[in-house]
Amino acid sequence: MPRCFNGIRLLPVVSTLVFLAALGAARAEDFCANIDSLIDQSRSGFAAIADKPKGDTGDREARLTLAGASTCLVTRKAKRSWYRCAWAFPYRAKRAADTFDALAGKLDGCLARRATPHGDRSVNHPDSYAARRYELEQADVSLSVKDKAGLGKTFVFIRVQGRNGGRIWRRGSEPVSSIGSTMRA
């Protein structure tokens, strides 16, 4: 006979909780694997994941999309290249702060042992702003939340940009073109 607590059969409840915990752990592992892949892709200027152009701004749709993001793009300019994802929310929505906190926790788990945390860099005049930045040997990874009253939105961004001296590298070769390390959202 199944064990019960106040008339509730425990086996289905416990099984569901174990499944949900495992699912959460798998999603965190997937997130870390995606971040590691992006860090590796930064060496090539994200060439393997940049898809068709999106307008004439240098943006390209990204083949790798982080879960829940509104958009993920690779931007390739003459002197720099980066990957970024954005989550858009209504202006000052609590979900934006919660998403920022959740992503910060995930990034801490993925990168804390091998990254050097640093303070914010300048930004393009949001109403409010918070950020975390991780410097790794190969790339900078940043997370920010920005309120934009003029747009009536709050954005959470993850950005990955290579730190290989500002150059795109091909495996086993010398640098082939210049990519800067400027990081602005």
Q: Numbering strands along the chain, what is their spatial order in the largest sheet?
A: 3-4-5-6-10-9-8-7
Residue share in β-strands:
35-45%
Termini gap = 59 Å
Overall number of strands: 12
Q: Enumerate the spans where pLDDT stays under 50 for 5 or more consecutive residues.
A: 12-27, 165-185
Structural description of this entry:
The chain is α+β, with helices and mostly antiparallel strands. It has one domain. Helices cover 27% and strands 36% of the residues. It contains two helices and twelve strands. Strands 3-4-5-6-10-9-8-7 form an eight-stranded antiparallel sheet. A two-stranded antiparallel sheet has the order 1-2. Strands 11-12 form a two-stranded antiparallel ribbon. Strand 4 (59-62) and strand 5 form a beta hairpin. Helix 1 crosses helix 2. The termini are far apart. Residues 12-27 and 165-185 have low confidence and may be disordered.
Annotate the secondary structure layout:
Layout (H helix, E strand, L loop, with lengths): L3 E2 L2 E2 H32 L8 E4 L5 E4 L8 E6 L4 E10 L3 H18 L4 E3 L9 E8 L3 E10 L4 E10 L4 E3 L5 E4 L7
Antiparallel strand pairs: 1-2, 3-4, 4-5, 5-6, 6-10, 7-8, 8-9, 9-10, 11-12
Helix pairs in contact: 1-2
Short overview:
The protein is an alpha+beta fold and 185 residues long.
Identify the notable features of this structure and list them briefly.
single chain, alpha+beta, eight-stranded antiparallel beta sheet, two-stranded antiparallel ribbon, disordered C terminus
